[in-house]
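Running this now, will post back.
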Amino acid sequence: MTCNKRHRRRRRAGLCAAAAIAASPAIAQAELPASVVEAMDLALADERQAFRTYTEVLNQFGEVRPFSNIVQAEARHIEALLRLYGVYGATVPDDQSKADPDIGVLDLKALCAKGVTAEIENIRLYDDELIPAVSGHADIASVFKNLRNASADRHLPAFQRCVHRDGRHGPSLKRSQ
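Update: finished.
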């Protein structure tokens, strides 16, 4: 498959990049600028940190919303980023994430308030740093925009609802993005 103008839509899905890499992984890896790899590394570290923190909340409090839903979404976000590393043959950095030490001392309302702050910072990170850093790579930018939108459209409102209801939670739902 060639990546001509007719296939630009496929490039957004990463298919053209994957085909190019299959043909010449060394060239594809060399063509990925260090600044793009750094942005991917930062995005992955951020998603891993959220996953680790929300997993620890579940360990402390049980299957409570919104953490039970969002931790599943964070796992999917990590997988989406890992697929990009595979497509480009980039080295996946070690997981250096650590759970937030406040988890053991804060109640659910306070943890949800921290979630609000974290999601606002996450949105800022994607808007101001990560998406601009990968603007020349449509497939990576598309993944980053999806991750940013999940924070803005799903995670942030879920944490805000949790704060509004004073940390009271309902039963866990199966899926969130």
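DSSP finds seven helices and no strands in the chain. More later if anyone needs it.
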